[in-house]
Write a structure and sequence with these properties.
Order of helices and strands: EEEEEEEEEEEEEEEEEEEEEEEHEE
Radius of gyration: 20 Å
CATH superfamily of the largest domain: Jelly Rolls
Largest sheet: 7 strands, antiparallel
Number of domains: 2
CATH class of the largest domain: Mainly Beta
CATH topology of the largest domain: Jelly Rolls
Strand order of the largest sheet: 1-19-16-21-14-13-12
Shape: globular
Structural class: mainly beta
Length: about 350
């Protein structure tokens, strides 16, 4: 890393766990090169040998089973007090929860789950293709809820891939960049480079989310830069924090400072941020931005609270109620050969239209 800059606050190397900045608790990046499916949504049993089944984070043969035994993923587990934003770029996720909602989503879709007062959910990674490999590429981001909304009613919202705005820009050298706008409107610094489009409106976040507060200035963007491409990110408010996570590729210049590794770079949010891909491969950068909630944060596994007393109450409530119980025949519930869909607790079904 070389050079000096005025907008960079800090930088640190990354692994698959992405350190959070308030209001984000943390993020995780999963890239699993799952092989061909065995007809039962899992891998050939021979590939399971030598793994700690039920707790497999080994990355053996390019993939992990996580807490799954036959199908990889995360069987039913509880959450309270925050939100999960799951961005599935490749592959599929089978969702089921204690509210009675269920979904299969992926290939660019996003699920935004407000856990609020408490929910159990399962997230399995079905290997639906028997004739080819089943790669999975996803981010999951944990977004805190302010104290006044910690006990909001649980809710899940689907952002289907074809509805998510993508701001495509071409720089002066004819190099292409793209900003996938998952949360927080994106206004290109150079609208002409974005085809004259002055604003890309994000989809509506869940109502209890910190993202629904206009003053929160919250953004979740995925930025892709082809080799040699440059892009200037617009400035946000002075109160916000902004972090850039280089997760795909290892070459990025931020305001003149060169990085040649997977890295998290926190930059000033109230200044424009010039980015440049100085490498020979496409790079992808996850941007997380928002005004800090600025409240005490106490966590224990799947529970997020503002005090130790609230944390103890969450565990007691879960033991007593199981957050509504589990209405599905298996804690690792999957959806067979179904296409992508979402069924809400009230029975309403939605599907991607393209």
């Amino acid at each position: 890393m070389t050079g000096t800059t005025d907008i960079i606050i800090s930088a640190q190397p990354l692994d698959r766990r992405l350190p959070g900045i308030d209001p984000f608790i943390f993020g995780a990046y999963h890239l699993d090169l799952y092989p061909r499916g065995n007809g039962q949504l899992g891998p050939d049993p021979s590939l399971l040998k030598g793994r700690d089944i039920g707790m497999d984070f080994s990355g053996k043969d390019g993939f992990s089973m996580y807490h799954g035994d036959k199908v990889p993923g995360f069987p039913a587990h509880p959450h309270r007090g925050f939100e999960t934003v799951t961005i599935v770029r490749k592959g599929l996720v089978d969702h089921a929860d204690s509210l009675g909602a269920t979904a299969r989503y992926g290939e660019g879709d996003v699920q935004w789950l407000t856990t609020g007062s408490g929910v159990q959910h399962g997230e399995m990674f079905p290997m639906v293709h028997e004739g080819r490999d089943n790669p999975l590429d996803l981010f999951q981001i944990w977004l805190n809820l302010p104290a006044r909304r910690k006990m909001a009613a649980p809710d899940f919202t689907m952002f289907w891939a074809h509805d998510i705005p993508h701001a495509v820009q071409v720089d002066a050298q004819g190099r292409r960049s793209e900003v996938e706008v998952i949360a927080g409107d994106y206004a290109p610094v150079d609208a002409a480079a974005a085809g004259g489009q002055p604003l890309f409106k994000a989809l509506m976040p869940p109502p209890a989310s910190w993202a629904s507060e206009p003053e929160a200035d919250l953004a979740i963007w995925i930025i892709r830069l082809e080799p040699g491409a440059s892009l200037v990110l617009p400035a946000a408010s002075r109160e916000a924090r902004r972090a850039l996570y280089l997760t795909t590729g290892k070459t990025l210049t931020v305001d003149g400072r060169v990085f040649n590794e997977s890295v998290m770079v926190e930059v000033r949010a109230d200044a424009t941020a010039p980015l440049f891909n100085h490498g020979t491969d496409v790079v992808e950068v996850l941007l997380l931005q928002g005004k800090p909630i600025g409240e005490p944060l106490v966590t224990h596994g799947p529970f997020v609270a503002n005090s130790q007393q609230e944390l103890m109450q969450a565990m007691q409530d879960y033991r007593r109620t199981e957050f509504g119980g589990w209405p599905w025949p298996s804690h690792a519930h999957t959806h067979g050969t179904s296409e992508r869909f979402a069924q809400h607790p009230d029975g309403r079904v939605e599907k991607p239209s393209a």
